[in-house]
Design a protein that fits this description.
By secondary structure, the chain is an alpha/beta fold. It has helices spanning 38-48, 60-71, 91-107, 109-120, 136-147, 153-159, 194-197, 199-211; strands at 2-6, 53-58, 76-82, 163-168, 184-187. Helix 3 packs across helix 4 (109-120) and helix 3 runs antiparallel to helix 5 (136-147). The protein is globular.
Length: 213
């Protein structure tokens, strides 16, 4: 069984450093540069990772995890979705993606970070700009992949008790109430990037999840 840590946007695989001590054998691939869709990313990860998989996906990484679970459900032992949602983008969210792409192209990754950091962390003092991925075209391709992803509600339902959502109390992108009917755990005080903002609490939940798969 291989644990695969799939990172959030606009960060990269370095965001998982707080988890390295508890899952030292996990792999944490970089998602940027693997194609222009979640399906392409999922195919790439499936070919790269061997054996049965436990997928831990944060936000964008959660969408990749669901695409992989759709592609190879027989290989997936469990999916922990961190600050991710099962549905596709609404028209309103798609409009927001267009604004994000424009921001990246006109003002660069640093401007993107300034706009997103208050949304990613309830306690902005815990934000670490060093984790920002700084290639503009890679970021734009990622936004497009997020925007165009399929609705994966059916995938989560098919996973049943193999899937769990982990949500921050102050996450502006998804709430526990929106995930009614699924297995959801909410971490108090936290924002969107739980594993960076509250690593001890996150690690406890991760270990509990891994013990059950």
């Amino acid at each position: 069984m291989k644990v695969v840590l799939l990172h959030a946007f606009p960060l990269d695989e370095r965001m998982w450093e707080p988890q390295r001590g508890i899952v030292p054998d996990a792999i944490a691939p970089r998602l940027y540069g693997r194609g222009r869709s979640m399906d392409a990313w999922a195919e790439s990860i499936a070919n790269e990772a061997e054996d049965e998989l436990v997928l831990v996906g944060a936000s964008m990484g959660g969408y990749c995890a669901l695409a992989l679970a759709r592609r190879a459900p027989e290989r997936v032992r469990g999916v922990l979705l961190v600050g991710a949602r099962p549905d596709a983008d609404s028209e309103e969210r798609r409009e927001g993606r267009a604004a994000t792409i424009d921001l990246i192209r006109t003002e660069g990754p640093e401007a993107l970070w300034r706009e997103m950091a208050p949304k990613l962390f309830a306690d902005e003092s815990r934000a670490d700009e060093r984790l920002l991925y700084r290639d503009p075209e890679g970021l734009v391709s990622a936004v497009e992949a997020i925007r165009d992803r399929a609705d994966s509600t059916d995938v989560v339902r098919a996973l049943g008790d193999r899937a769990r959502f982990l949500i921050g109390e102050h996450d502006p992108f998804v709430s526990a109430d929106e995930l009614e009917g699924f297995d959801v755990c909410e971490i108090a005080r936290a924002g969107h990037l739980l594993n960076v903002e509250y690593p001890d609490e996150f690690n406890a939940e991760l270990l509990e999840f891994l013990a059950g798969v």
